[in-house]
Amino acid sequence: xTPPGYMCEFILISNTKLRxxxxxxxxxxxxxxxxxxKTIIKTLNEHNHGVNQQKVESQQLRVxxxxxxxxxxxxxxxxxxxxxxxxxxxxxxxxxxxxxxIPSKQTSYYCMLFRLPRNDTFHLVGTKPIxxxxxxxxxxxxxxxxxxxxxxxxxxxxxxxxxxxxRQCVNIIGTWTVGxxxxxxxxxxxxxxxxxGFQTAALxxxxxxxxxxxxxxxxxxxxxxxxxxxxxxEAGMFAVGQEYLxxxxxxxxxxxxxxxxxxxxxxxxxxxxxxTRAVNHMHxxxxxxxxxxxxxxxxxxxxxxxxxxxxxxxxxxxFDPPIKIRPGDEIRTTCTYSSxxxxxxxxxxxxxxxxxxxxxxxxxxxxxxALPYCTTxxxxxxxxxxxxxxxxxxxxxxxxxxxxxxxxxxxxMMIELAMHCDTTCSSNCTEKVRNLRExxxxxxxxxxxxxxKLQRKYPSISLIKDCFRENKSDNHxxxxxxxxxxxLEPERKLELAEGSCxxxxxQTLHRLIKAILLExxxxxx
Length: 525
Prior knowledge:
Strands 1, 4, 8, 9, 12 and 13 form a 6-stranded mixed beta sheet that branches. Strands 20-17-23-14-24-25 form a 6-stranded mixed beta sheet. Helix 7 packs antiparallel against helix 13 (509-520). It has 525 residues and is of the alpha+beta class. The longest helix is centred in the last third of the chain and has 13 residues, at 408-420. The protein has helices at residues 9-14, 37-46, 53-58, 262-268, 382-386, 399-403, 408-420, 427-436, 444-454, 463-466, 483-487, 490-497, 509-520, and strands spanning 91-96, 100-102, 107-115, 121-130, 137-145, 159-160, 169-177, 183-184, 189-194, 200-208, 216-218, 221-227, 233-234, 236-242, 246-247, 254-260, 273-281, 286-295, 298-306, 316-325, 330-337, 346-347, 358-364, 373-377, 380-381, 393-394, 397-398. The protein has 4 domains: 9-89, no CATH class; 96-231, Copper type II, ascorbate-dependent monooxygenase, N-terminal domain (Jelly Rolls), CATH 2.60.120; 236-391, Jelly Rolls, CATH 2.60.120.230; 400-520, no CATH class.
């Protein structure tokens, strides 16, 4: 385990003042730590950078990482952003957003697309944060973009993006969070960028404007350290964790668990991989988190074991030698929370007042994974939803087809609810709902997930969940208190209900469902 603040030597030297005042070292020079001053001068002059030999030698120029702590004079001058300083073959460049207005709302995600160096193949070996607005910036992620589906044009300004930076940019290759000084990757690995790697990246910044302060700006970003001297292995990163959280108020501790199952690791890591680094991620109600490896239902070891989790003091677990993950191993994640200070139920969400349960794991060799998330929603595995080896089928349910707008069963289901359910979960309604939930896509946790995905589009579908509960026949169906319904804008409620319906006002649930059916055009001719 490496404490917070651990930095690579090449990142340390990037902050160190050099003894040279006018020498510009650009990446084309390919100057190594072993080059003497004459070689350096010759190489620089070949690139039209006139250098006085006596000045260089008198300043005792040595581009050596091991002597970084002894270098004390003024920094070298970099005249253009495209020029990178070489130290032991390490190049650097900065990806930084222009000064951007921060919205006066609590949670905002803004992104920007950047072109990465692409005149050669490189390994990204470290990152360092460039934080402008320290009070608001919550975390930064850098995603490598897959351009097989089409070229991505770098953006000239930021755009509001949410947690998904870009649909073609899902591979995490750089991270920063509050309390971290930067990332240093294992010395035998790097993320491939350039001519045969990621050529474009999406930089995502999360602002936490808790007090909704107006008229603030931010121009944060990441400094990247990369090298043309490719390392032995290509690095990758994947996430584990639970994406369904429902934390009741005022409880001292409550835990949620997730499994990256043996079936998933079989297809994600068919030849096995090696873990070099891991970090836990929850928000401010998180108090403890563990990630464990199981083999044949027997615990092998911990990946992380954080008994006292503190969001602002992240712990980075470094492994040398790396941890072997075999195909068929299970990776279990447990997140524990305390809500004693909260008077409201806390759900999974993007804001820091919401909660998360993730573990980010760096490994090698990188695998060709469509979506590098081995997370779950309750017990529904994202791996089985997106890995092509599973054919888009979970427990007999073709989930994408079921969620598509033209699904006839959804139309049938909504008509059945309109005909048999009023504003209460009567015995007739409850029986009908139980019959509807016998569909392979509506049973168990998978059924709850489907309802969760559908109820923003069809708010009244929450009846399928509420009226399915045992012994609920005399209870109100709670459509009016459904938090997804309440989140809709008033105009949207009017549009759906064809009136001033507030679900319990002057419109019946029957009329509301009919309005939704009409608006969605899902009546079958």
